[in-house]
Amino acid sequence: MARPLLALSGVSKSFGAVAALRDARLELYAGEAHALVGENGAGKSTLVKILAGAHAPDTGTLMLDGRPLVLSGPADARAAGIAVIYQEPTLFPDLSVAENIFMGRQPLRSLRRIDAAAMRARTRELFERLGVHIDPDRPARGLSIADQQLVEIAKALSFDARVLVMDEPTAALSGVEVERLFAVTRSLRDSGTAVLFISHRFDEIFSLCQRITVMRDGQWVSTDPVEALTVDEVVRRMVGREVSTLYPKQDSVVREPRLEVRGLTRHGIFSDVSFTVHGGEIVALAGLVGAGRSEVIRAVFGIDRYDAGEVLVDGRRLPRGNTSAAIAAGLALVPEDRRQQGLVMELSVARNTTLPRRWSLSRLGLLSGAAERRFARVWADRLRVKAARLTDPVATLSGGNQQKVVLAKWLATEPRVLIVDEPTRGIDVGTKAEVHRLLAQLAAEGVAVLMVSSELPEVLGMADRVLVMHEGRLVADIPRDRANEESVMLAATGQGGAR
Q: What's the pTM?
C-alpha cells in the first residue's frame, strides 16, 4: 500500500500509576475506513484524545504525510486536518447551525463585521457536498443527535479535514439515521478522506470498514483486512479469551407476580398499557425508536406522572409520580443515559455506589468514608468494576465500568423488580456478556427483570417473554419459544402481533 496519511508508533500514555496506552500503533490511509475496536478500558478513548490534540503522548511518534507531527492542542489537530466526531456532539444550542460550524472563524466584511450571508452560503455548500438538507439558520437546539453529528462533519469539512475520527457515532441513532450517516461517511471515504471508525457494533464495522485494528489493555493486538476476520475472531482478540456465551440465559422458576401495570395511559405518549412481570422472569420491552418504551418505564418508576391506570408491586398500588415510594416498594431503574441520569460524574465510585443506601449506612446521621468504601468494595468486586481507587471520580472510568457502577448502585438496594433501559448500549462485548450473566443470575434468584432494548439479538437471547410496543400501544406479548426476528419486527411495525 502507499504511505499512510497518518501513522502512530510506539505511543504510550500514563495517568499517574495507570498506563492507558503502551506501545500503541495505528496507520490510516487516504480513502480508507479503518475500524478501531477493543473492550472499554482498552485505550481507544485515550488514543482518540491524542489524535485530537487533547493529550500529549509520553512516548512515541505521530507522522502526517511522512513528516513528524507534534500536537500542542486541539487547534494544532484542526490545522493538521484531523477532526473528531464524538458520540455526543457539543454544539452551542442557542446559536444557528451556520454559527456553530464557523464559530471563531466567521467570514468578515469591512470593519470586521460578520458576513452572515457568506457564512450561510458556505454552510449550504458544505451540506450539498454531504448530500443532506439542514437549514443554516436553524438553531442547534432541537436538532436530533444524527443531525448534530452531520453539523459536526460539516464543521470538519470546513477545516478541510483529511482525517475524520468517528467515536461511537451511531450509539444513539435509529436504523434510518445510521444509513444516512454511513452514506455521508462512504462519500467522504471515497473522496480521499481517511476515516477512523470506533464502534461496538460489528455489523456496522464489517459493512463500512476495510481494515480492523484490535486493542487490548492499552496495547496494539492486531491489524487485518475485514475479509480475513470473523466476528468471533475479533471478539477473541478483544477480550483475550473465548466469550462462549454472550446470552447466558439460565432456566429459572417463574414465581408470583411482582410488577403489575394496568391500563397505564399518558395522553399523547402511550395508551392503555397493561402487563405483568413475575419473579424469576426476564421480560423484554421491544419496539422501534419512539414507540414509547422508555416513557412507560419512567412512568412506572414514578419519574413521570401518568393520566390513568395503576402500577402494583407485590399487589400493593404505588402512588403516581413518587420515585421514593417506588424505591421503598423494591423497584430499581437503571436508566438509558448513564452519564446524565445514572451517575454524578464528579463524585467518587464509592459515593455513587452508596447514594441510594446512604441513610441505612449512616450512624446518627453520619456516614464515614471507611464504611462507604467497605460497602462499595463488596459491589465493585461482585460486578468486577475496574477502578484504580474507589475514591476516584466515576468520570475517570471507561463506559463499561460506569455502567457496572450504575448497576451496583441499584442492586445494592436489593430490589424485587429491576428495570434496565438499554443496559448494554455503548459497552464492549466482554462487559456485555458480564451484564447478561448478572441479569440471568438475578432472575434465577427470583428478581423480576424488565429490560428495554433496541438490540434484537439481546431481546431474543435473554427474554422469557417479549412485549412489543407500536406507537404508544402494547401490541404483542410473545413467549420465548415463538419469539424470532420476524415476529418481533412485524409487531413493532404494526403489521402483526400476538397478545
A: 0.62
